[in-house]
Amino acid sequence: MGIEIERKFLLAGDGWRELVERSEPMAQGYLVGMASIEAGHAKSSVRVRVSGGQAWLNIKSATLGIERQEYEYPIAVADARHMLETLADGVVEKVRHHVMLDGAHFEIDEFTGANQGLVVAEIELDTADAAYPTPAWLGAEVSDQVRYYNVNLIDRPFTTWTPAEQDGKENT
């Protein structure tokens, strides 16, 4: 069984930019998203993601917290693009920056489009209590705040949030 243990953070500065090893644009959409989950019709989200010349189908359990079931399978890019255009309720676009720091891999997502202005750092861990670097540019943890889940950014994009929500001060 695939388990993802991931912590998500706001950023407190741009110091990470000088550490970027590579960046790639991504587009992802949900075939089973938040509306189905909230209605009690689904126990997971089903996502299609395209990045560069690759694509994946991803299934993630609809549970809160840093530890969730996750399964990911490569699929044909043409199939993924067709699913995004015809089956997804919307598309989240971002640039993913890869940063290595003290042996830890941070994925920093800089969102575009309706989520322009949102930048978050994610780190996957081997265990929920694993130690990880905490550089000065790593801000408040938002792992348990569902509004930061990518699946929610389609129905409620960052540009529609209140100023308090955008600053991470309001917990919703």
TrEMBL record:
Provide the CYTH domain boundaries. Answer: 2-155
Pfam short name (any one): CYTH
Q: SUPFAM superfamilies attached here?
A: CYTH-like phosphatases
Q: Which organism is it from?
A: Luteibacter pinisoli
Q: Which domain of life is it from?
A: Bacteria
Q: Which residues form the active site?
A: 30 (proton acceptor)
Would you tell me the protein name for this molecule?
CYTH domain-containing protein
Question: Cross-referenced InterPro entries, in alphabetical order?
Answer: CYTH-like_dom_sf, CYTH_domain, NeuTTM/CthTTM-like
CDD domains, from UniProt?
CYTH-like_CthTTM-like_1
Q: Transmembrane region positions?
A: none
Q: Which PROSITE patterns match?
A: CYTH (PS51707)
